[in-house]
Every structure is written in C-alpha cells, then in structure tokens.
Design brief:
Layout (H helix, E strand, L loop, with lengths): L1 H15 L7 H7 L3 H10 L7 H32 L1 H14 L1 H5 L9 H22 L13 H18 L6 H7 L3 H9 L8 H28 L1 H19 L8 H4 L1 H15 L10
Helix pairs in contact: 1-2, 1-4, 3-4, 3-11, 4-5, 5-12, 5-14, 7-9, 7-12, 8-9, 8-11, 10-11, 11-12
Length: 284
C-alpha cells in the first residue's frame, strides 16, 4: 500500500514537471514527502547503511513520475491551450494551499532578519525567472538535431532543470522555456509514443537532469540539516514567488476567467486535504 501511494504521488510530480510555472518541489512539499526525497537522493551514494531503504522509497516515486509525464502530457497541454486561466488558477490554489505545510516543517519558524532576507531573495529569484519566461528569452533548437553542440546544450539545460525540479517554487519547465528548449524537449518526449524517437535529446536531458537532481538534493539536504529555519524560509519565498509567475498575464472579467474562482477553490481544497504532518514538523 505504501509503494502504491508513492507511485500515485510520483504520477502527480511527473505531471507537474511538464507544466511551466508549476513547481514539482512545491508539490513534493504539499504531498508531505519533500524532505524524505531530499534526504534519500542526497544521501543515496554516501549512506550505504540506508541505501536499500532509500531505493525502496525512490523506485515507486520515479516510476510514477515517468508514467505521469508519458500519460498526462497531452492532457495538460490541452488544458493549457483550451482552458488556460482556470488551469492557472487551479495551480495557484494548490500552491497557496501548501504554505501552511511549509510553516509546520520546523518547530521554530519565528521571523528574524536573516530569515526574512532569505525569504525576500527567494521571492526575487522566482519573479526574475518568470519575467524572463514571459519575455520569451532564449533561442530554439530542433529536437532531431544531431549536432554535438546542441546535445551539450541539452545536457546543461537538463542539469539546471533537474536542480529546479527539487527546489520548491522553481519550475523545471521554466528553465526549458528560458533557454528556448521547451518545444524540442516536449517534441522529443512525444516521440516516445510516435517514432522515430529522438533518443539523443532524451538521453542528454535525462542525464543532465539526473546529475542536477543529485547535486542540488545534496546541497539542500545539507542546508536543511545545518540551517533548517533559514532554508524553510527560503523555500517559503520560492513558493510565494511562483504565485507571481502563474498569475494570468491577460486577466479580464470574461466567463472563462470567472471560472478560475471555483478552480482556485478546488485547488486550495485539494491542498488542504492532501496536507499532512512532515518529518521535521511538530507532528508526524
């Protein structure tokens, strides 16, 4: 039952990874497994005594994430194309609903100068990333290009996107958009079900992302253990900043925009229902 639950959570995380503006890290916080994942990935190579335990935790989560990407990418693309504003408000509801979870992740979350500065810097980082995405920064590379330079770019982009995937409030898909590689990468993923498969892009991005996840998870794990409250304030800032990036650019009073009110409420309600005590909190 535990493995099945982790598999289902992995599906949700996989879906979030293909949606620009939606942070997989925030969803991991919401699902109550963020610090467990960070510890498992960050200590997998260094803690041999618990490696088998980490593997049993990570395997269903990874399988679910891969399944989520492959099974729901087309549905998410349809919702973003045909019902953009209600979909955005649904995710805003999810994100704002995760804030109480973060506030319970450490026993001492009283504000201080250092903690507030960490919060402010984190908010600024996400706002800058979302501003760059909305201005369409970056070039474009064809998904089927065999050029070594282009594949090297995909490795580098995958590395930074992987780090973003385990950082709450920062969307890995943002990195793809900022570098102009979102289209080719989605095209390459779609080729898995519609050959010919663009293996060069898939392997390059996957390899870079795996390395980014390993290194970033290790750094976050160390930060959580050494400076937990400051780190959680930074995480809270990243989450709050992602709200700015998701806010619809062309909001009006049309019927489609007003539908965003119930979808926002639905997202917030789901966040409330999913929230659970986390490992570093007062409760378990």
């Amino acid at each position: 039952m535990k493995s099945l639950l982790l598999f289902l959570k992995g599906i949700a995380v996989g879906i979030s990874n293909v949606i620009p503006g939606v942070s997989a890290g925030t969803l991991l916080v919401l699902l109550g497994i963020y610090d467990q994942l960070i510890e498992a990935v960050g200590s997998f190579l260094t803690n041999g005594a618990r490696r088998k335990e980490y593997f049993r935790f990570l395997l269903p989560l990874v399988l679910g994430a891969v399944g989520g990407v492959l099974a729901f990418a087309n549905l998410i693309s349809f919702l973003l194309e045909q019902h953009l504003v209600p979909t955005q408000f649904f995710f805003i509801g999810l994100i704002l609903g995760s804030i109480p979870t973060v506030l319970r992740m450490h026993h001492d979350m009283r504000p201080s100068v250092v903690r507030v500065v960490a919060f402010g810097l984190a908010v600024g980082l996400v706002v800058l990333l979302s501003a760059g995405e909305r201005h369409g920064s970056g070039g474009y590379f064809a998904a089927d290009t065999p050029a070594l330079l282009a594949l090297s770019l995909f490795v580098g982009v995958g590395f930074f996107a992987g780090g973003a995937m385990v950082t709450p409030g920062v969307s890995g898909a943002y990195i793809f958009l900022l570098t102009g590689t979102y289209g080719p990468i989605v095209q390459a993923l779609a080729s898995l079900t519609r050959p010919p498969v663009h293996w060069g892009v898939i392997v390059a991005v996957s390899g870079g992302a795996a390395l980014g996840i390993l290194i970033c998870s290790r750094l976050i794990d160390l930060a959580l253990k050494k400076y937990p409250a400051v780190t959680f304030y930074a995480i809270l800032g990243l989450i709050c900043g992602s709200f700015v990036g998701l806010w619809p650019a062309d909001l009006d009073l049309s019927a489609s925009s007003l539908v965003g009110i119930p979808t926002f409420a639905c997202g917030a309600m789901i966040a409330y229902m999913l929230r659970k005590p986390v490992r570093n909190g007062v409760e378990r």
